Amino acid sequence: MKSFIILASFITSVFAQNCSLPFGQCGGSNWNGVKCCTSGFTCKEMNVWYHQCVPSNEVVPNSNPVVSNVVPSNAPAKSIPTTNAPIINNPAPQNVNYVASNASSSSALIGYASMNGGTKGGQGGQTTTVSNQSQLVAALKGNNAKIIKVNGIIQLTSDVTVNSNTSIIGANKNSGFTGAGLKFKNASNIIIQNLKFSYCLGSNKDCINAQKSTNVWIDHCEFFNDRNHGKDYYDGLVDFTHACDYITISWNFIHDHYKASLIGHSDSNSGEDTGKLHITYHHNYFKNVGSRLPSLRFGTAHVFNNVYENIENSSVNIRMGAQALVESNVFRNANKPISTNLDSSQEGFVVQRNNDFGNTANTNSITKIGNLNTVPYAYTNDNVNSVYNLVTRGAGPN
Ligand SMILES: *[C@@H]1O[C@H](CO)[C@@H](O)[C@H](O)[C@H]1NC(C)=O
Ligand SMILES: *[C@@H]1O[C@H](CO)[C@@H](O)[C@H](O)[C@H]1NC(C)=O
Ligand SMILES: *[C@@H]1O[C@H](CO)[C@@H](O)[C@H](O)[C@H]1NC(C)=O
Ligand SMILES: *[C@@H]1O[C@H](CO)[C@@H](O)[C@H](O)[C@H]1NC(C)=O
Ligand SMILES: *[C@@H]1O[C@H](CO)[C@@H](O)[C@H](O)[C@H]1NC(C)=O
Ligand SMILES: *[C@@H]1O[C@H](CO)[C@@H](O)[C@H](O)[C@H]1NC(C)=O
Prior knowledge:
Blueprint: H1 2-15, E1 25-27, E2 41-47, E3 50-55, E4 126-130, H2 133-139, E5 146-150, E6 153-155, E7 160-162, E8 166-170, E9 176-178, E10 182-185, E11 188-193, E12 196-198, E13 208-211, E14 214-219, E15 222-224, E16 238-241, E17 245-250, E18 253-259, E19 262-263, H3 270-273, E20 278-282, E21 285-291, E22 295-297, E23 300-304, E24 307-311, E25 316-319, E26 323-327, E27 330-334, E28 338-339, E29 349-353, H4 384-394
The chain binds 2-acetamido-2-deoxy-beta-D-glucopyranose (6 copies).
Organism: Piromyces finnis
Keywords: Carbohydrate metabolism, Lyase, Polysaccharide degradation, Secreted, Signal
GO molecular function, one term: pectate lyase activity
């Protein structure tokens, strides 16, 4: 009854504005755009920062309460229900503005993707703007250099293959893919930037599934599903397996999911993976995740200047002889910040320094000290004291 009265009093202003397109953003903390959806779509709260226009007949899985599709543009953001939230012992500052239109974040490529000849994506190629799946698939054909701009959120009905020498870039901070994900197989030289990925339920159930691929840079993207369906309903958000190599994952906002980033899929794949799987994670914001940030087998990882917040089971998981340098990260209510002896038949090796573990330090389990004290590329390591603010403001699409 009360909501009916509120609706009625705002109905005039609602009709005066243009409501968000299918799958567009329609609300969330700090969202200044329109907060209603086009006909046939309903504004659903995906999390406290992001409400999305989804078909009213429930195509996109999510069990959060449905918000009316006629929400006044000046309505306050609804608060998120906390049924699945982990116990918070050490809450971090709440005034997080992760969508930084003016991010202090650098878009220069650093890390392992800068090696092995570097990662230039489609630089020098033709630019094509796409706004639906068939245009995307057509634009992605071939291994010639090409830049694909994604305009708006494209609903994918199946995982889409990305070939070599390709950049896929969001045209604005509300561009990307929902429903399924991207796959790379035997490809090289790929840049994925400024895109939102959500509800990835293609055949891989991953948002990005890369195999036998090299020189990949994933930057300023957002990845999320939900945690309403159990940990195997979706699979990974950003997974690299089968001897992928020279990868950088930077400035992404990765949240509301169970198993985020699997690097090396099996204890029995040493023949293919040993000596490969070099990967850098820097300035990513991991929030409300179960585990695998990353989980690394056999490979080599440099994990620096990331923020881990509300991590349920384990954060950095290094196993099967893998080596990692883990430095200047911030852990807040992140269970098992760093482990070398979880889930596999052999341990991994870690060098850790300058990390801020908050009150979770005593849940580290580093059983083997590694030898990755330096990395073979130049990088700026931000002071750990500035990392929380820098990363929570700068990570995600611009
Ligand atoms: C809605 O869209 C129409 C056509 O693009 C435009 O003329 C009008 O100014 C828009 N209204 C608002 C409130 O943005
Ligand atoms: C970006 O940040 C700079 C420095 O803080 C500020 O002067 C400028 O107004 C900001 N621009 C936008 C678009 O917010
Ligand atoms: C994709 O967009 C193009 C250009 O707007 C349009 O011609 C085409 O019909 C669309 N395809 C689908 C399947 O919606
Ligand atoms: C990618 O581009 C480079 C340089 O233009 C070219 O040599 C190479 O063949 C391309 N890769 C593939 C797989 O075609
Ligand atoms: C992998 O890609 C290279 C370069 O495009 C091609 O020559 C080769 O045949 C591909 N291998 C497989 C197994 O697809
Ligand atoms: C976390 O650990 C518990 C207990 O081992 C397990 O039941 C649950 O599935 C795990 N969740 C994730 C996301 O790994």
